Amino acid sequence: MNRSVSSVRAVLITHRLLVRQLLTRGRLLALLSLGAVVVLAAVGVSASAEVEDAARTIIEVMDGLGLILVVPIVSLVFASAALGDLREDGTLVYLWLRPMDRLSVVTGAYLAALTVSVPLTVLVLGCAAIVGGATAEGVVATVVATVFGVLAYSGVFVLLGIAIRNSIIWGLAYVLLWEGLFAGFSEPIGNVAVRGYARSLLANLSEIDLGSAAEAKTSTALFVCVMVAVGSLAAAAIRLERMDVA
Amino acid sequence: MVEAVGATKSFGDVVAVSDVSFQIGSGVTAILGPNGAGKSTLFRMLCGLTQPSTGTVTVLGRNAGTDREIRGRIGLAPQQDALFDRLSARTFVALAAETHGVVEVDTRTRDALERVELDVDDPKPVGAFSKGMRQRVKLAAALVNDPDVLVLDEPLTGLDPVQRQRMITLFGELAERGKCLLVSSHVLDEVARLGSNVLVIAQGRLAAAGDYRSLRDRMDDRPHRVRVGTDRPQLLAGALVERGNARGVTVLEGAVIVDVDDIDRFGRIIAPLTVELGLRLDELVPLDDDLESVFRYLVERRR
Fold first, then answer.
1. Rounded to an integer, what distance in angstroms lies between the CA atom of residue B131 and that of residue B116?
2. Is B14 on the interface with A (CB under 8 A)?
3. What is the DSSP letter of A180?
4. Which of A152, A16, A139 lies closest to A75, judged by CA?
5. Predicted interface score ipTM higher than 0.85
6. Nearest partner of B250 among B260, B261, B263, B264, judged by Cα
7. What is the C-alpha separation between A88 and A7, in angstroms, rounded?
């Protein structure tokens, strides 16, 4: 008797289960509140008489609040919880001790996190860009930078969720210190931070200069975001294979 | 079906399981040990959830941690109470079936839930279930893939006496079908009803293994300590020593603390003796009949 589950089926089962697990009222309310702050900032930009170039200012707001705060934090909350919550509460065993390959479980978890994070962030930041007076290019740039930022961050945070305990705290430290602070100060660090590539997409596609920390080509930025996700998921699958499960 | 060879598991300086070796075939094998003895760690090693620090643990000749196919032939009901609390019992067990690659998910889910006497159509989430019902949900999930090896960690905890008896009967039926069941417990009497094969784990070590009856005899053969309450303890103590009915006696707070080799014989002679001496027998209390002392005795005897 064949007791294995095909890779595609394992991805679908894991995805279906974890979307349901991730969608809690508390999480959604907290993150929609965060998004509301960005939308309010955008409304402020559009309403302010002091803003000379609203199309430029709103892209800077999308960079400063959207890509540095909303995108990584929403990704962190859902992606680190996708497998991390199961690890913490002891239910991971119900996916681990199964004839399913580890990469499929990790991929299912990643897709579950994306299923929630991508619509949430695109909705919030896309609306904020429109309300704030961004050009059509600016709105497209915001959406693309958001999507690829979430793709990369979610990969990193799925790995973080099963690699360490209290991943939310460590993830916040990473987002605020590494991505938010150090990556802005130092070009070498900026090259190994997701933020720089997401900013490059925003700057290149909106054709608005966001400074030296956003100078990667569009193709490079897209490639790096995807590769960060792929590399993180591969590492997460290896970690899942080797970890002790409670 | 299941084999451990010199299996040791350490967590830092703490040795949870130490140099354990055994072979288990089909049938029910009870793993008996006090809380913290290392039973759950041993089970986790069997299922590949943690790898032994040294030695090997295999199921059907393979390592469940690295062999995907073998994981499909194991059913585990873990000790921890965690379930996907927002799912109904039916959805939870169906999920277990799907993740095991079961083809007839609905039929097998229904069968598994009926076997543990849970309502298939109960829409309540398992988070709202009682401990006993949650325990049965775990059992149903462990059974749904018709595994060759069932690892059940304290599966009778939280069940009422009727449910316990039904589960024990179910385990017996599965054993008769050639399944290998490992069932842990820290309750001696429970183990007596589970089956004849017993592994006793104490302080991370295999203290005893084999047939339950011979093990029980060895437990009963150990020295026992009994408190005998009487109105004249000095007189009783003197008579017990003089007639060779005790290894040692201590008079303490109006009672005699008696060390005896044969507890059954002592039980037979004590009442006639008090009658003969004209004493009042107030109480007869075994002082070391708890499981901890039984395990301690077995471990010390093994050294």
1. 14
2. no
3. I
4. A152
5. yes
6. B260
7. 25
B29 vs B175: CA distance, rounded Å:
10
Chain-centroid distance, C-alpha B273: 38
Instruction: Tell me if the pTM is above 0.90.
Output: no
Tens place of pLDDT for every residue, chain A, 246 residues?
Answer: 557 899 999 999 999 999 999 998 888 888 888 888 888 888 887 787 777 787 888 998 899 889 989 999 999 999 999 999 999 999 999 999 999 999 999 999 999 999 999 999 999 999 999 988 889 999 999 999 999 999 999 999 999 999 999 999 999 999 988 888 887 777 777 778 898 899 999 999 998 888 766 678 999 999 999 999 999 999 999 999 999 887
Cβ-defined contacts of B266-273 (< 8 Å, 24+): B266/B224, B266/B226, B269/B245, B270/B228, B273/B236, B273/B239, B273/B240, B273/B243, B273/B245
Q: Which of A3, A21, A97 sits opposite B101 (nearest CB)?
A: A3
| Residue in A12, A230, A98 with CA at minimum distance from that of residue B67 | A98
Contact A51, A57 (CB under 8 A): yes
Name the 3-class secondary structure at A135: coil
Place of tokens 């149903």: B140
DSSP structure string for B116-168: TT--TT--SBGGGS-HHHHHHHHHHHHHTT--SEEEESSTTTT--HHHHHHHH
Residue B303 has pLDDT above 70, yes or no: no
By the CB < 8 Å criterion, does A5 face chain B?
Answer: yes
CA Rg, chain A, in Å? 19
**B68 contacts on A by Cβ (under 8 Å):** 4, 99-101
R_g of chain B, CA atoms, integer Å: 24
Residue in this structure with the two tokens 């069940």, named with its chain if needed: B159
Do residues B218 and B32 touch, judged by C-beta distance below 8 A? Answer: no
Structure tokens at B234: 């000095």
Backbone torsions φ then ψ of B102, nearest 5 degrees: -65, 140
Selected for mutation to probe chain B from A94, A102, A162, A243 (highest B CB count within 10 Å) is A94
To which H or E segment does residue B18 belong? strand B14-24
Other Cβ atoms closer than 10 A to B48 = 22
